[in-house]
Amino acid sequence: MPKQYDVIIVGGASAGLSAALYTSRQNLKTLVVTKDIGGQALLTDSVQNYPGFKNIGGFELLTKFQEQATLYGTEFLYDEVLNISKNDEGFLVKSYSQEITSEVLILAFGKTPRDLGVPGENEFKGKGVSYCAVCDGPLFKSKKVAVVGNGDNAIEAASYLSSLVSNLYIIQSGDKPRGDEETLNALKSMKNVEFITGSTVNSILGEKSVTGLELKTRNGKKELDADAVFIEMGYIARTDLVKDLVELNKLGEVVVDKFCSTGQEGIFACGDVTDTPYKQVVISAGQGAIAALSAYNYIQKKRGRPTSKTDWKSVRIQKDEKSDFKLSRN
Description:
This protein has 330 residues and is α/β, with parallel strands linked by helices. The chain has helices at 14-25, 58-71, 133-136, 152-162, 181-188, 281-302, and strands at residues 3-10, 30-34, 75-78, 81-87, 90-95, 99-107, 111-113, 129-130, 144-148, 167-171, 193-196, 200-206, 210-217, 220-225, 228-231, 235-237, 267-269, 315-319, 325-329. The chain has two domains: 3-113 and 235-329, FAD/NAD(P)-binding domain (3-Layer(bba) Sandwich), CATH 3.50.50.60; 129-231, FAD/NAD(P)-binding domain, CATH 3.50.50. Strands 1, 2, 3, 4, 5, 6 and 17 form a seven-stranded mixed β-sheet that branches. It is globular, with a radius of gyration of 21 Å.
């Protein structure tokens, strides 16, 4: 039987993580389903227009978002949503690894990591195929891993992984490595890092999990031993997933009102996936809070309980003897 949540949030960037923070603080059992944490914010190492920070990296900022949401009880599933449908409980969400249900759905996926599109990719998602180095990198400490992709996002992922793994292979299709010059130079100086240029991935190999890659090189084909592959091929919008559930505009964006309601009962949306004209981290975060409070009030009304327009209550966080966090609500 599918696991039941009060709220499922699809997307793990600023909108989704802010929504998760607010729903979790309202005592709603919350699950974030996402292929990665941070989304497009990870592509910048300098965010200078987020209130409270003169200058902060996208990775650092979104990590703080996740840490705070986790502190209040948010759960995470690093997977890709394949199908969303209505059922008696509310909504049934199917991913590669499992089926889950919720009373409310918050769409916050903006743009999702682009697939590589090769044999073995779908079969081993969550079993060695990852789109988030920060999320899954620690699982492969002292292992052999590959990063596939051109440009800064791939190089940043490689930089993070280089200090964790025993062997790191950076696979790029160009004739020479591409990305931030300073980061490239640092990676080139490391003994456990190897650049494989002029190459593409033909297929991902494995049985129960990833065991390697088949590469197409200038001289033909070759196999590469690897315990995991991190795919960094950029981002793409995937609102076709919900086209039969919510209204989309001509640009494929989800149409919402001032409460971040989609018009479909029980579904809210926030962030870059919506028709809000300004695509900024701070705006996405604000919309996440609106969507979460709207979702909370929707559930309260269904349950015959009082609604609220604010989230001012104090929630004290205490550590117990086992170093786990406990919440104490006033």
